[in-house]
């Protein structure tokens, strides 16, 4: 392993890309600790110390910002606006024919979709910044006194703070694109990986201090087993064989090759878990904004407090599990079109052995997708439940490091980045890599 790492840094071009990526990551992490203008750093720290449940329902968003959100720093909004915008643009391909046409135009159409994603990211960033500043101003963000986080709540300071937070979103988006163009791996994925990994040492230290070394050891063993299981499932795929008929083009015979369609067990990635978590956060957000209202809570409010706000009630767990499975089927349905795949195969003379081209091929692919998606959906559901189960069984906090979206994203990004580095090494040091 160490010799392979040494060969990576012995390649000048690859070494420059890695150092460039590390430099961008350093800038990203520095911005996560610089307080935004108008924010009292001392007030924020006092609020964090006074409230043990730091942020509570905001832990999910705070995880994607690398802890910057609850610090109200320059990069407080993190990468979440871009993730949301990218998901929305991808889903709109099913609704808006123009987006579907752009997707089929290749690189030029993809560039146009990327531009739309940037515009939507800025719009969502402005909206999120407004909500964050409003909650910080009222003290609802960290359950502290009004004016403790933002002492001067004049209009000029509020507008400046919203502008700076929105600019921070644009800056993060630009940093990610720079990594993609001049660094190693997908820039946005790398930044998400860094933001999540930044919270691991603190979470592990908290488990060790509060639960002792036995629970800490159990968590480490569970984490290693989970990583091995996730790597196995993420690499698993169903290979549907495809053969192409021979064609006579001039004096040459082309075609006659055999290949396969790789259908991953987890085709949806981590997006269904993000969907389910975001929707289940809405009741908590609604309760947070209605805390200042007087009067007895109604039936609906009492229902939310009893079953959904704790995050560990069996009703909440069952709802989370079923929503994850449902969103997995939904996302796979809109991202993999058996009709389009069957049509492309027919156009280029391809066929699945034993299956007629056209409608039978489409039906067969839909059947295979349905069978593969079921274990993939169960896998995502069980992974998403791990932090909640850990909180109940071993008493670990809900920010359990080895579970849910965090471990899925980290392992997925790690595998993809390693594959890209390995591909670049094969291009430059082919003989050295095979020693």
UniProtKB/TrEMBL annotation:
Task: Please indicate which superkingdom the organism of origin belongs to.
Answer: Bacteria
Source species of the chain? Nesterenkonia flava
Q: What is this protein called?
A: Protein translocase subunit SecY
Q: Output the SUPFAM superfamilies linked to this UniProt entry.
A: Preprotein translocase SecY subunit
Where would you find this protein in the cell? Cell membrane; Membrane
User: Where exactly are the transmembrane stretches of this chain?
Assistant: 18-36, 72-96, 116-135, 155-176, 188-209, 215-233, 315-336, 377-394, 400-418
The job of this chain, per UniProt, is described as: The central subunit of the protein translocation channel SecYEG. Consists of two halves formed by TMs 1-5 and 6-10. These two domains form a lateral gate at the front which open onto the bilayer between TMs 2 and 7, and are clamped together by SecE at the back. The channel is closed by both a pore ring composed of hydrophobic SecY resides and a short helix (helix 2A) on the extracellular side of the membrane which forms a plug. The plug probably moves laterally to allow the channel to open. The ring and the pore may move independently.
| The keyword Transmembrane is assigned to this record | yes
């Amino acid at each position: 392993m160490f010799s392979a790492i040494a060969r990576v840094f012995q390649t000048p071009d690859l070494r420059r890309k890695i150092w460039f990526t590390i430099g961008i990551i350093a800038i990203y992490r520095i911005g996560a600790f610089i307080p935004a203008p108008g924010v009292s750093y001392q007030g924020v720290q006092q609020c964090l110390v006074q409230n043990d449940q730091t942020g509570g329902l905001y832990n999910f968003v705070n995880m994607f910002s690398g802890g910057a959100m609850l610090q109200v720093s320059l990069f407080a909004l993190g990468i979440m606006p871009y993730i949301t915008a990218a998901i929305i643009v991808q889903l709109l391909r099913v609704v808006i024919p123009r987006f579907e046409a752009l997707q089929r135009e290749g690189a030029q159409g993809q560039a146009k979709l990327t531009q739309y994603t940037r515009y939507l990211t800025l719009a969502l960033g402005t909206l999120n910044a407004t909500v964050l500043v409003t909650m910080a101003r009222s003290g609802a963000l960290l359950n502290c006194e009004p004016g403790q986080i933002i002492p001067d709540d004049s209009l000029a300071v509020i507008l400046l703070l919203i502008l700076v937070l929105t600019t921070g979103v644009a800056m993060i988006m630009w940093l990610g694109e720079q990594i993609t163009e001049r660094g190693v791996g997908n820039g946005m994925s790398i930044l998400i990986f860094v933001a999540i990994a930044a919270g691991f040492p603190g979470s592990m230290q908290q488990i060790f201090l509060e639960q002792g070394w036995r629970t800490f050891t159990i968590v480490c063993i569970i984490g290693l087993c989970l990583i091995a299981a996730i790597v196995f499932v993420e690499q698993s795929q169903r290979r549907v064989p495809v053969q192409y008929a021979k064609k006579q083009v001039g004096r040459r015979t082309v075609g006659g090759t055999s290949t396969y369609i790789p259908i991953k067990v987890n085709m949806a990635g981590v997006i269904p878990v993000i969907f389910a978590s975001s929707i289940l956060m809405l009741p908590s957000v609604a309760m947070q904004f209605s805390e200042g209202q007087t009067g007895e809570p109604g039936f609906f409010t009492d229902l939310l407090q009893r079953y959904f706000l704790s995050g560990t009630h069996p009703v909440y767990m069952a709802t989370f599990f079923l929503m994850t499975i449902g969103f997995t089927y939904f996302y796979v349905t809109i991202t993999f079109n058996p009709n389009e795949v069957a049509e492309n195969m027919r156009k280029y003379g391809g066929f699945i052995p034993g299956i007629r081209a056209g409608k039978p091929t489409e039906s067969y692919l839909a059947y295979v997708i349905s069978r593969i998606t079921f274990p993939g959906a169960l896998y995502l559901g069980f992974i998403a439940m791990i932090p909640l189960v850990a909180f109940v069984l071993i008493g670990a906090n809900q920010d359990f490091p080895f579970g849910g979206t965090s471990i899925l994203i980290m392992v997925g990004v790690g595998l993809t980045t390693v594959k890209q580095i390995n591909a670049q090494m094969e291009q430059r040091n082919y003989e050295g890599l095979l020693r």
